[in-house]
Structures are given as structure tokens and as C-alpha cells.
Amino acid sequence: MNITIIGCGNLGFSIAKGLANKQKEFNLDITATDPDVDLEKIRAIGINASRDNKAAVKNSEIVFLCVKPWIAKDVIEEIEPVLNSSQVLISPVAGLSIDQINAYSSKKVSVFRIMPNIAAAINQSVTCVSYDAEDEDIEKTLNVLNILGKTIVVDENKINAATILTGSGIAFILRFLRAMTEGGIEIGFRSDVAQEIAAQTMKGTVELLLKENVHPEQLIDRVCTPSGTTIRGLNEMENNGFSSSVIQGILSSYKVIAK
Length: 259
Fold this sequence. Notes:
- There is one protein chain.
- By secondary structure, the protein is α/β, with parallel strands linked by helices.
- It contains twelve helices and eight strands.
- Strands 3-2-1-4-5-6-7-8 form an eight-stranded mixed β-sheet, sandwiched between helices.
- Strand 2, helix 3 and strand 3 form a beta-alpha-beta unit.
- Helix 8 crosses helix 9.
- It is elongated and about 70 Å long.
């Protein structure tokens, strides 16, 4: 399967790396294009690199549009002459609706609007997706997106919200991890050791939660003993607005994209 990725910024490059990791397994022929990124950096991950969007798109079955919102229209109009009805256009462009994408081109193609995150680079993204697509394109495209991690189909009106949970969510989680690390330093660990402990604890916790498929409070109850250290720490965090701060942070981020 021929795949083109237009735009190799942070997200586009993460998608490129994730697909490159599995290209032999899934028989993928991947080309990434970008007017500014060093093409050798792209080739170094084992895929083709180009500055010619039209040439790359012409023979592709799936095209990822990983560009800034303000140039999306120009790029779609640029590649329109070589688009055809058998192709699929996948867009993670923030704020760009499926209707807008369709309006920018007179060619009828299957359109998928997605919101992955940079963990796509290691095939661990969660990718929310909605689509306006021909039936024969849906399974094929979802299979490609599943290479990047876990795919969840949502209504398009939830894509903006997904941007906050999956895209911005990485930063929120890492800030919590950094805070745990700093706390670990306060109680006597070197920075690198504290980070390793905190990161592995976070990884194990998430894997346990996903495997057991239970509510987080059920696992919290297993850790909290009466008059113990855990409940004391949790109550102190809540007394300082931990949960409400996280919720308000998510709501504040959502207000930016929902304008």
C-alpha cells in the first residue's frame, strides 16, 4: 500500500515513524513530504522523502494531511489535480472539519478526520477518528490507523474534545510525572532515579487499569489503608485542588479550540 504524509512537523513525523516501524510487516511504501524539514532526517527512518506534494500523492492510496491549519486549504488545492475517487485523505489538522475539506476540493475522496498523539511514533497513540467515506475504504483505513496504536471511532463533534484528551493530554500527564519526580527528589532520590521510579509506576498503573478494566477508584482503594501514607497524601493533594485543577485545565484548553 502506498502512503503519503504531507508535513513532517512533530505530529507528521511521529505518524511517519510509527508507520515506518511496521512497513515491512504491512507491506507499506511510505513517502513523506515537507518544504522545510531536512529530507535526510526523513530518509533516516527508512522511508522516502520529497518536496513535491503532487508527485508523492499521485500514486498513493492514502494521504495524510499533517499541515498547519492556515495552509491546509492551499495544500489541498495544490494536490487536487492529482486526487482521484479511489484515494483516502486523512487529516489531523486541528479545527478543520470534514465539510471544509470537501469544500476545498471538487474531487470526491473518502475523508477521515483524526486526532492522534505523538506516541504514534512508538505505535502507542490513541487515535480518535470520524469519517465521510466509501464503505470499501473504512476497514482499510482503520487498519492503517490501528498500526499507530488504538483507534476509537467518535462523532465528528467530539474531535475537538479528543484533541485535548489525546493531544494535550500527553503534556498534562508528563507534568504530573515531573511533579512526582520532584517530590521524589525532595524525599532523597537522585533526579534520574526518581524519574525512573515514577515513570515505571505510571506505566504499570495504566497497564493494570487497562487489563483489569475497572474504575480508577477501585485500584485506589486497594492501595489506601486506614490511617496510612497513601490516603494522607491523596487528601493533601485534594485539599490543594488536585482533581479540580486538572479538570479546569482540560476545560480551559477546550475553550481555546472550541471558539
